[in-house]
């Protein structure tokens, strides 16, 4: 059975030859220790290094991207992942370099700006300041207007836009399932945007409508480019619960998510919604009424118990299983192995399961623990009698 067949069999809730395995990100440090060479595969270091190369010159950036594609493909082949996707990258060229770790981005049309900083200790390359933080709703109004202009100009993606993904897949070898992030839907999880949801709901609705418009143009074209899976969703919860009320989810998110999922199904694609956090208060809307096929970034530490999900929401295909915030960080390899054994026994019967961490393999995880998890997945993930 090919990797693509294995993944799609899991989504049909049939039992493949073995449980599909996938991680959406493996940080550069861990990948380098596994492969024995410098690797450019994921985490904040990848986004910072690519940004620095883009700032240096077009030639430096193109060289970095070429090496990135090779490294990601090699790691997928080495770890036998069944899904191929591009790592999370920073797609903009900075307008200024404030210091070796900090870059500023400006949009002259809108006056919007942001500053991103890399912290090597945490391996985060995150926004530390922005026009939206400073101005609030006036900046959001300009951002929404710009999104509306972009949505009016939306067009189906061209073949060359998938060249990097296909290069990674070719490097990885085998017939693997290709994923795409079209249909990502979220109210940006920043204070100003969440305040706008209460004070200016019209802005939130206008913004989310542009996301839907873009998705409805993009999704129908994806199958002809080899895409089989929408790996989308959008962060909307913390360990304490959803970032906004069930009523707001029903107003803002649910009708638009239903449109995106319907478009995916019409195109013959499956849609997996990813979010961290405790989502039980909106589980009926998010994971049932929306029509999504799968749920990932399952936050075990936030109370999203795999056994309950498998029992109460049997229509879902689940991705995850081992906490990257606790078990993979603090357990010993033998404890990781026992966790994987228990997860496989709990989640594999009847298909509908893809194995992985609860989010990503970040720099706080000991490499030995990640390798123990991968070995245990091979040992306990077979459906053969």
In terms of structural class, how would the helical and strand content be classed?
alpha/beta
Please report the first level of CATH classification, the CATH class. Alpha Beta
Question: CATH fold name, please?
Answer: TIM Barrel
* Element-level helix/strand string: HHHHEEEEEHHHEHHEEEHEHEHEHHEH
Cross-sheet strand order for the largest sheet: 1-6-7-10-11-12-13
Q: Which value, in Å, is the CA radius of gyration?
A: 20 Å
Shape: globular
Q: Percent helix among the residues?
A: 40-55%
Pick out the low-confidence regions.
Answer: none
**Count of runs of 4 or more consecutive helical residues:** 15
CATH architecture: Alpha-Beta Barrel
Termini Cα gap:
16 Å
- Mean pLDDT, all residues: 97
DSSP summary, beta strand count: 13
Percent of residues in β-strands: 15-25%
Largest sheet: 7 strands, parallel
Number of domains: 1
């Amino acid at each position: 059975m090919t990797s693509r067949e294995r993944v799609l069999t899991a989504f049909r809730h049939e039992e493949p030859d073995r449980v599909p395995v996938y991680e959406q990100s493996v940080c550069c440090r861990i990948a380098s220790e596994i492969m024995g060479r410098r690797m450019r595969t994921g985490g904040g270091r990848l986004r910072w290094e690519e940004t620095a190369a883009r700032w240096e010159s077009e030639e430096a950036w193109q060289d970095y991207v070429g090496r990135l594609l090779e490294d990601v493909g090699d790691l997928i082949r080495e770890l036998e992942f069944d899904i191929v996707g591009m790592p999370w990258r920073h797609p903009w060229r900075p307008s200024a370099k404030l210091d070796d770790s900090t870059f500023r981005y400006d949009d002259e049309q809108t006056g919007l700006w942001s500053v991103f900083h890399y912290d090597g200790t945490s391996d985060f390359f995150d926004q530390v300041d922005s026009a939206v933080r400073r101005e609030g709703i006036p900046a959001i109004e300009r951002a929404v207007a710009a999104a509306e202009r972009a949505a009016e100009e939306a067009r189906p993606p061209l073949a060359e836009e998938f060249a990097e993904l296909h290069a990674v897949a070719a490097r990885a070898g085998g017939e693997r399932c290709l994923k795409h992030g079209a249909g990502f839907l979220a109210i940006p999880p920043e204070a100003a945007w969440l305040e706008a949801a209460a004070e200016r709901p019209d802005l939130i609705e206008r913004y989310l409508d542009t996301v839907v418009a873009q998705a409805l143009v993009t999704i129908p074209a994806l199958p002809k480019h080899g895409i089989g899976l929408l790996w989308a969703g959008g962060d909307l919860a913390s360990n304490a619960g959803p970032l906004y009320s069930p009523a707001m989810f029903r107003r803002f998110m649910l009708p638009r998510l239903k449109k995106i999922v319907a478009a995916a199904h019409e195109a013959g694609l499956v849609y997996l919604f990813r979010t961290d956090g405790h989502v039980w208060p909106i589980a009926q809307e998010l994971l049932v009424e929306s029509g999504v096929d799968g749920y990932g970034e399952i936050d075990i530490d936030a109370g999203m118990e795999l056994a309950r999900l498998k029992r109460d929401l049997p229509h879902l295909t689940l991705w995850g299983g081992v906490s990257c915030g606790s078990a993979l960080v603090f357990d010993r390899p033998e404890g990781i192995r026992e966790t994987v054994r228990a997860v496989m026994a709990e989640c594999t019967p009847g298909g509908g399961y893809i194995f992985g961490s609860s989010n990503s393999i970040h720099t706080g995880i000991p490499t030995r623990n990640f390798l123990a998890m991968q070995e245990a997945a091979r040992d306990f993930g077979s459906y053969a009698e």
